[in-house]
Amino acid sequence: MKQVRNTHAKTEILNLINGSDIALTHSDIQKKLGDLCNRVTIYRVLERLENEGEIHKIVNIDGVVNFAKCTGKCTHEQHFHNHIHFNCKECHSVTCIENAIPEISLPAHFIPQEYNFIISGICPKCAVK
C-alpha cells in the first residue's frame, strides 16, 4: 500500500472540509487558505484526499465540483456516498443529507455500483429570509 503523506496544505484543506457543514468548491478552499498554496497544489491535494477516502466530490446543478468529508465507511479502495446532495438555488450551497437514502429499482441485468442524487431547492437558511 502506498504511504500516506501529510503536508501542511493537506492538513489545512482537510481541516477546512471536515469543519464545514456544506461542501466546498475549489474556489472556496482557495479563498479560505489565502497564500498558503497555489491552485494547482489545492487540486492535487483534493485528488489525493479523495483517493485516500477522506473526501468525496459532488457536481452541483451548475456543473461546479464541490468537496465534502467522507463519513466513516470510505476507504482508498471504495467510497460509499449513496445519499442525497441538496443544492440550494439561492445561496448555491451543497449539503450531504445522509439520513435520506432513496430506493432505486432498475430493469433486469443492470447492476448499480454507485449513484449521485442532487435535489435542488431552497435550504433552511434561505427559506427563513
TrEMBL record:
Requisite cofactors: Zn(2+)
Keyword presence, DNA damage: no
Top-level taxon of origin: Bacteria
One Gene Ontology molecular-function label: DNA-binding transcription factor activity
Coiled-coil residue windows: none
Binding-site residues for Zn(2+), renumbered to this chain: 88, 91, 123, 126
Cofactor note: Binds 1 zinc ion per subunit.
Keyword entries, A-Z: Metal-binding, Zinc
Protein name: Fur family transcriptional regulator
